[in-house]
Amino acid sequence: MTIASRLRERSPVAAVDDALWHDGRVIAFEYPAHAAALVPVEDWPLWAFRRRASRTRKEYPENRVRHALLARIGDAGALTLRELGDGDDAGQGGWDWSPTKTAVQFLVWSGELACVKRDEGNNRLFDLASRTIPANYLTDVLTDDECLVRLLNRAGRALGIGTVDDFADYLRISNATVRTLLRQTDLLPVEVDGWKKSAWASENALQHTGSAVNDAAFVGPFDNLIWYRKRISRIFDFEHALEAYKPASKRRHGYYVCPLRVGTELVGRADLAFHHNTLNIRQVSLDALTDRNLSGFAQACNDLASTLRATGIEIRSDAADRRTVTALERRTA
User: Fold this and answer.
1) What is the pLDDT of residue 95?
2) In angstroms, rounded to a whole number, what is the distance separating the alpha carbons of residues 94 and 181?
């Protein structure tokens, strides 16, 4: 959903998945860039600093375990966690990691294993990095500082403008490291009205005027746009939290809550689910019941249903204000 909602030309999620995992090309790998993320394969050299650091952590598997896992995958080819004897990959969520999952995860972090494909059941396939990452990218030659300076430049282009905290969270590195390296980057120091902290911006962001953004879309809960709560509050005056890991009784907005973007504003949120080929809207809250927000909500629902190839949209009668329900019903009639 995250990638599909970012595309200007709406594409079905299945088409995005096919392009990522099933067309034979290696275009991305899964890696803890901040949280688990999809990273363009050409960025493999830039994460050498994290691969090296992973090999020094206490969770990094001992030689016997490491060699056994690498030998098995080397002989058998790409395997899922289930095939490695660790049960259902999807069931090993959160931080309740088994010994096998811990070992595999740190071999991914260290760069000895890589996940560049998923099977038809959407389970991760782990293979030798030396066999899956194109040889022209498979290198750790960059120093830690060289990696981080280049990644900070990438972060600057992605964020446009940010504080030290923003960049540190984006790359999951320390504030002290960011402060030390910022002056080696191409980013420019700037001041932003209303921001208490100094900021840095990419030259592209300062020169870019851009065209008007008038569409509407739901933002996936794992989208980089909304990952760092302090930044979202500062830029959009919008509070967001992932409540999926809270007990149901303590959730305010629901389980799988997706903020609603209308134009360049975040104007509300909806708890969404996809069951029996139907997009289910379990809870909705809009900051203001304006015609623009209501129309944007209905548009976002229709676009997401099309992206999921849903055969219908259902909204619970108690999910929202009646005007919100009516707006959706009119647009989907």
Assistant:
1) 54
2) 33
Task: Identify the residue with better confidence: 16 or 223.
Answer: 223
Give whole-number Cα distances, 37 to 72, 105, 171, in Å. 26, 13, 11
β-strand pairing of 199-201 with 188-190: antiparallel
Q: Tokens representing 240?
A: 């967001």
* Cβ atoms of 167 and 78 closer than 8 Å: no
Question: How many Å apart are CA 170 and CA 180, to the nearest integer?
Answer: 16
258 contacts 239 by C-beta, under 8 angstroms: no
The amino acid sitting at 117 is K
- Structure tokens given for 230: 């302090």
Residue 161 reports pLDDT greater than 90: yes
Do 304 and 269 touch, CB atoms closer than 8 A? no
Q: What is the pLDDT of residue 94?
A: 52
**pTM as predicted:** 0.88
Residue 142 Rama label (left phi>0; alpha psi -120 to 50; beta): beta
CB 32, CB 49: distance < 8 Å: no
Q: How many of the other CB atoms lie within 10 Å of CB of 10?
A: 14
Which phi and psi angles does 288 have, rounded to 5°? Answer: -150, 135
pLDDT digits over 196-208, tens only?
A: 999 999 998 888 7
